[in-house]
């Protein structure tokens, strides 16, 4: 060992790096995006920025039952209350607000109150329930008519050929109505299934508009279409079948609701860098301002009777909205009662190298 004094010498321990100073509790709480309060003896001792934004900047130092002023929360927030199940708070922070309150213990006797925002989840669930109810109703109505006329035709006295033909015509019309509704429901489901996968193929939107216009001009109202399109191609990153469906929905809507004999103008032009602006304008009765935000809701109709009489399913603009979202575009609807309605769609164009950055 004497031969290797350095090898066996005891080394002094390396100095340990300085421990980082612990962040103050307030900074830790502010890093949490959901509202969090720390409570001691029934009083709020700390609250993060999200909690102060929801409940007010003054809540620190208040009785927690005053800070979270909600009847469903009062019993659980008593200083001597046992820990219970999560509590749902309806109307907290606003009429439509829905929050879930969780209370957990801290070893030193304090409590941590966490508020979890359930507003969006509740709205989505409500939309799903409403959608199922509306779809069931829309299918049940023509089905009831079909069954009723079939039963009538089976009666012994229903032998008049003219009467039979009239009833069969009604049955066929109702069956077609169900067929259109089922097709729209399937389309909506397919679009929603692909909404997170952006289209990556170049589609000439100008050529597609001309094709759809030619198809509609074969009908009784299609001659009212007036096109204002560029001579050169208008390439966008798109799904051609979906864009064709978008155009059919917008143009048939405009032809249906525009006044007889008035033109429906379809224009396409470059907008901001990288975007193409498609506009479809009719000269119809227009839509009142209070109805505009709901036009893209599923099954919403300003005039339900007129829509059904024209063969509408109530899903046309909802489908348009989802197609635009899938294409990473923007949809706008402007309308003036007595003047008409203009629907505008902004879609990303295709650059020279094939990317969707510049038109």
Give a brief outline of the structure.
By secondary structure, the protein is an alpha+beta fold.
Explain this structure:
- This protein is an alpha+beta fold and 359 residues long.
- The chain is 40% helix and 19% strand.
- The protein contains eleven helices and twelve strands.
- The strands form three sheets. A five-stranded antiparallel β-sheet has the order 2-1-5-4-3. The protein has a five-stranded mixed β-sheet with strand order 7-9-10-12-11, with helices on one face. Strands 6-8 form a two-stranded antiparallel sheet.
- β4 (98-105) and β5 (111-117) form a beta hairpin.
- The longest helix has 36 residues, at 119-154.
- The model is unreliable at 1-9 (pLDDT under 50).
Class inferred from helices and paired strands: alpha+beta
Strand order of the largest sheet: 2-1-5-4-3
The strand count comes to 12
Q: What is the percentage of strand-forming residues?
A: 15-25%
| Distance from first to last alpha carbon | 81 Å
Report the C-alpha radius of gyration, rounded: 32 Å
Low-confidence stretches: 1-9
- Sequence of secondary-structure elements: HHEEHHHEEEHHEHEEHEEHHEE
Tell me about the largest β-sheet: 5 strands, antiparallel
Shape: extended
Number of helices: 11
What is the average per-residue confidence, as pLDDT, rounded to a whole number?
85
Summarize the amount of helix as a percent range.
25-40%
Oligomer: single chain
